[in-house]
Amino acid sequence: MKKYIVCLSLLVLNIYNAQVNFTSIPNPDSNANGNDQVMMYITNTSESTGIKGFGLPAVETDTDLPYTGGNAPVTRIEELRGMLLFVKSTGQAMVFDGLVWSKAFEVESDNISRFQLNTVSTTSGAVLLPINSLIDKPNFLADPLRLKTNVPTSGANLNRLYIRQTGLYRINLNLNFTGPAGSFSNRLGASLYVNDVKRFQLLESTVNYDGTNRKINLDFSVYAVQGQYITLEAISEIGGTTSYSVTNTSYVTVEKVL
């Protein structure tokens, strides 16, 4: 009886310390890094230094996926059905059904869009903010809300965010200003328009970096209906700074709250 108990104890101990890994690295705890094509590595031996969890092999872009283009299979490869690969440029995990690849899931929030602003200047104290539609997921520029999807990138549409779903939205503006030294003596801010009708206006004292560069961070909440569009405008306090530039280190983040 004692032999069985000892064997059972050893079995439990071995299970707790078990390691499962599919990799050519002899010692993944110390040698694994983000460039290694590690399919899976699980360990309970060291909370602080061991790699814990499930990792997918990764490719840089969609074009790096195997069995695509001229290499696409004519008949289904049953042995590879369900194969997963992570695409770094899109943040998507792709699944292979033996014939074609499709998106399994995406590593990003589905209710937050974030855009970079183009540099724009004014001498009158107010200027509409041009919103760049560039998607650059490694730098957190994405549009799951489709606010700029299939929207022209010139003219009035450059300044517009088109609402695809009716709901409550939180809009954050992170604005960086630059101007002549000593010109930032008054408050700066922004206005929010829905279908060209002003709905909100916020002003605040700017953070002074070095006399020529200033920064503000503003939050709006607005209820918008599908088909409407939102535009944003940088403004200055009456009698304040009238000549300044909003730099392309400025961003607008839109979150669908409800």
Q: Can you tell me about this structure?
A:
With 258 residues, the protein is mainly beta. The strands form four sheets. Strands 7, 8, 11, 14, 15, 17 and 18 form a seven-stranded antiparallel β-sheet that branches. Strands 9, 10, 12, 13 and 16 form a five-stranded antiparallel β-sheet that branches. Strands 3-4-5-6 form a four-stranded mixed β-sheet, with no helix packed on it. Helix content is 7%, strand content 36%. The model is unreliable at 1-24 and 34-39 (pLDDT under 50). The protein has helices at 2-16, 28-31; strands spanning 20-21, 41-42, 58-59, 83-87, 92-96, 101-106, 112-116, 120-122, 127-128, 160-162, 167-178, 188-194, 197-204, 207-208, 213-224, 229-236, 244-246, 251-256. The chain has two helices and 18 strands.
H/I helix tally: 2
Q: Unreliable runs, pLDDT <50, ≥5 residues?
A: 1-24, 34-39
Biggest sheet architecture: 7 strands, antiparallel
Which class of secondary structure composition applies to the elements? mainly beta
- The secondary-structure element order is HEHEEEEEEEEEEEEEEEEE
Specify the overall morphology.
elongated
Helical percentage: under 10%
What would the average pLDDT be, to the nearest integer? 79
Radius of gyration: 26 Å
Helices and strands in order:
Blueprint: H1 2-16, E1 20-21, H2 28-31, E2 41-42, E3 58-59, E4 83-87, E5 92-96, E6 101-106, E7 112-116, E8 120-122, E9 127-128, E10 160-162, E11 167-178, E12 188-194, E13 197-204, E14 207-208, E15 213-224, E16 229-236, E17 244-246, E18 251-256
Parallel strand pairs: 3-4
Antiparallel strand pairs: 1-2, 4-5, 5-6, 7-18, 8-17, 9-16, 10-16, 11-15, 11-17, 11-18, 12-13, 12-16, 14-15
